[in-house]
Amino acid sequence: MRINRRIRLGAGSIALLLAIAAAMGCGGSERRGALEHAAAGRLTIGIKFDQPGLGLRNKDGSFSGFDVEVAKYVAGVLGVQPDGITFVESPTAQRETLVQNGQVDFIVASYSITEQRKDRVAFAGPYYVAGQSLLVRADNTDISGPDGLRGKKVCSAKGSTSAQNIEKNFPDTQIHTFDTYSLCLEGLRSGGWDAVTTDDLILAGYAAQSAGAFKLVGRPFSTENYGIGMKKGDKALRVEVNNAIEKMIMDGTWKRVFDATFSPSGYQAPTPPSVDWY
Ligand code: GLU
Questions:
Q1: Label partner for 77 (CA 20 to 30 A): which of 94, 178, 215, 246?
Q2: Residue 22 has pLDDT above 50, yes or no
Q3: Does the Cβ of 199 fall within 6 Å of ligand 1?
Q4: Residue 264: which of 210, 197, 226 has the closest Cα?
Q5: Mean pLDDT, all residues of the chain
Q6: What angle separates helix 235-250 from helix 253-262, to the nearest 10 degrees?
Q7: Residues 60-91: pLDDT tens digits?
């Protein structure tokens, strides 16, 4: 008897869920685009969860950082309130797949626009220009730039432009890669790695949180144009997101948000880039 009742309840619940899903426009086999999701007041946005200053999931479950603010601003222009956003962690090497599979509507996650990535995703932006740099222990004296990496052990993230650059252009350096940069930090602290390499902005966030344990060295040695990654072929979305980025820069929000997130790490807001309307 008890089992029967449970089964009936289960079937009833499924019917109810299907009815709700149909009413919300989720029915059918067709996968709807980001603009339709936005029109329904909801967006799923990929960010980093472990990059303080850029994309961070805080202990209380809230999200903070420049990328998070860019994501919220763009969502707002598309008509979506912050409580309509679901943030999804998007580690470096998984970003193209998350976009292609429709698991996110778009990605704002220190995501460099590259020709190789453009084979799989489209990019709005750029909304920021970063550069590859090096994080070392505060007492390190023998690494002051990429030329000091000969014979050294360097840690970075799988699939990143930073790791690719070391592999290609610094063959005498041992590069070790993990899913995220935060996984490199313990090894840097304990002496397993001599340096962590990725964009200056990301490293500045880690340095600011390290209570003086780490420092950034040298000048940036690459150009990383941060774009908002999205499905290839969704031209309408690209236009809307590019407009939103331009608006954020023009109305002063871009600088205000950058100053609020990065001035504690001693970073001045640079001149914002111009959006590429390719
Ligand atoms: N901007 C570089 C990239 O997209 C490094 C930062 C990251 O991995 O998110 O590969």
A1: 94
A2: no
A3: yes
A4: 210
A5: 91
A6: 70
A7: 999 999 999 999 999 999 999 999 999 999 99
pLDDT at 61: 97
224 lines ligand 1 (CB under 6 A): yes
Ligand 1 centroid vs 76 CA: distance in angstroms? 25
pTM of the predicted model, to two decimals? 0.89
Mean pLDDT of 18-34: 55
Peptide linkage before 126 cis (omega within 30 of 0) = yes
Atom 6, ligand 1: residue with shortest CA distance: 110
Task: State mean pLDDT over 167-188.
Answer: 97
Of 155, 82, 93, 151, which is closest to residue 120 (Cα–Cα)?
93
Q: Return the best residue to mutate from 96, 127, 161 for the ligand 1 pocket (most ligand atoms within 8 A of CB).
A: 161
Pocket residue to mutate for ligand 1, from 113, 155, 198, most atoms within 8 A of Cβ:
198
